[in-house]
UniProtKB/TrEMBL annotation:
The keyword Protein biosynthesis applies. GO terms for molecular function: ATP binding; glutaminyl-tRNA synthase (glutamine-hydrolyzing) activity; transferase activity. InterPro entries: Asn/Gln-tRNA_amidoTrfase_suB/E, Asn/Gln-tRNA_Trfase_suB/E_cat, GatB, Gln-tRNA_amidoTrfase_suB_CS, Gln_synth/guanido_kin_cat_dom. Keywords: ATP-binding, Ligase, Nucleotide-binding, Protein biosynthesis, Transferase. The lineage of its organism: Archaea, Methanobacteriati, Methanobacteriota, Methanomada group, Methanobacteria. It comes from the Archaea. This is Asp-tRNA(Asn)/Glu-tRNA(Gln) amidotransferase subunit GatB.
Amino acid sequence: MKCGLEIHVQLDTRSKLFCRCPTDYQEAPPNTNICPVCLNQPGAKPYPPNRSALEGALKIALMLDCRINPEITYFMRKHYNYPDLPSGYQRTSIPVGLEGELNGVRIREVHIEEDPGQYKPDQGTVDFNRSGIPLIEIVTEPDMTSPEEARNFLRELIRVLEYSGCARGEGTMRADVNISLEGGKRVEIKNINSIKGAYKALKFEMIRQKNLLKRGVEVKQETRAFLESQMITVSMRLKEEAEDYRYIPDPDLPPMKFTDE
């Protein structure tokens, strides 16, 4: 088994990444901590990136033994359509940290991005209070070979994040899990929000793929969702090739360069 993780962690800042709206979205009534900037309304320009978010991302990258990207850093527009993304694109930086390591697992990159809103398809509602909250995404190499290794890595990562003082806590962490077995294709499991959930999802998916391969059935490259109430994964969509997000540099945000100072 090979397993890699993409972990999204909210940064503990008072205001959002590109505006001055407060970040206490969990306590506020729906759609009250919003403005034209975090809703990406026509003509609304983003503020310069939140300095506390940039400093927090760099601190966490260094604690993960990453080298800081010495090149010019800038934000890109990552295009996709979903109800929680009013602009049709998400602002995400090129990597600020590269080639780190934690618990024997290589860290490919750390970058900064903005959180989308909260969409509840069963209710048909979207709450944009979360839209624009600063995130970091930590991407690992596929170095984990068992659910236990993934669980141990996540436990150690949470210790690092808590010690950094820059993250909002485990309850705001979300992970996408990529798993493949020899002879099968890679499967991605989206939006797991606990260590227990990641462990259970990997256990179930490993057994599911083993049973398919034993019967000579192809393991399809797809995206699956984890139903924590039932402890199973279910198919969301086939993923024959990598999504084309049509990345372009954001013309509304200036490039940045990080120095030792």
